[in-house]
Here is the input.
Amino acid sequence: MVRGLNAGSYRHNGLGLNMFSEDELYDIHLATLDVLWNTGVRVDSAKAREIFHSSGCQVDKETNIVKIPAHLVEDAIHSIPSTFRACGRNPKNDWYCESNRTGFVNFGEAVKIIDPYTRKIRKPNKQDVWDSARVCESLDNIVVFERCLMPEEVDPDVGQVYVAEAFLNNCTKHGYIGMNRPENVRAAFKMGALVAGGEDKFRQRPLFSTSTDPISPLLHSEHAVDSLLQAIELGLPAKINAMGLAGGTACVNLGSVLVTHNAEILSMFVLGQQVKRGFPMVYGTSTTMIDLRTTIAAVGTPELALFSSAVAKLAQYYKIPSWVAGG
Here is the structure.
C-alpha cells in the first residue's frame, strides 16, 4: 500500500498554494450550477439521456441538450467517495486516492517517441508500449500507470485493448486506461479478470480504472459516455478528464474556462452517481492554453500550472480525489 505526501492541508509545516478563498470556491460552484441548469450540456448517448431524464433532468430530444438541476449536482458531489483504493496486482503497490495526498504518474499519451537506440523521432509500436509499461513499473515515484503510447500498427479503434494487454503483462501497479468503445472496456475487463483469478475477484480489486474525456465546450460524445456506463456496470473506477483549450475550444479567460470545465466534469459525476451511488470517480484535468501559432495544446505553460492548481483546489473543496496535468 502506498500513501502520498499531504498537500494543501492547513498545517504549520510545509508549503501550500491557496488559489481561492472559500467564498470564491462557492462562487465558482454557483456559476457552474447556473451553466448546468440554464445552458446545459449536450449528451450524444441515448442511453445516458434516458438516465438523465428519469433522474429529473430536462432533456431536449431535438438538440440532445440536458439541463441538470442543482440538487442532483449537490447529491452527486456528496455521494462520490472522498477516497478509494486503486488496487495493483501487487497489493504493496495499492495507491490510496485521497483529496489531500499527492503522487505522480507518467504522461499519457504521446503520439511519437524518441527511439532509445537511434535517437530519431518516430511513431510508437507495440513493443514500445510493452517497454513503457515496464519503465513505469520500475520507477518508484510513479504510483500508478497511465497509457503512455498507442501502437501505430494496430487499428486505433482497438488500440486501447493492446495497451491493456501490455499493462497487465508488465506492470503490477494500478492503471488508468482510457477506452473509446464499450466493447473495448469489456475486452480489457475480461483480460483483467484472467489476471485476477476470476471476474468476482477482479470486481473486488479492479486492477485498472477507465478515463472518460468530455469534449469542450460542454459536449459528451456517444462512445465516451457509453464506455463510462459500461465501466460502471463492470465495477471499474472512472476518471473524468476534461481538456479544454483556452482561446480555442474554451473561453480565453481562465475563470470562465474553470466554470465550463467544472460543468463538464460535474455533469458526468451526476450520470455516474445516478447509475451507481457511491461509485468511485476522480476529478481530472488536462486543460491548458491553445498555441495560436500552431493551434496545438500548449502543454507546460504557466496557464496550465495555474489551471491545474485551481482544479486541485476545487476538487479539495468538493472532497473528491483529483488528477491534474503537471506540465
Notes: DSSP finds ten helices and 20 strands in the chain. The longest strand covers residues 142-146. The two ends are 27 Å apart (CA to CA).
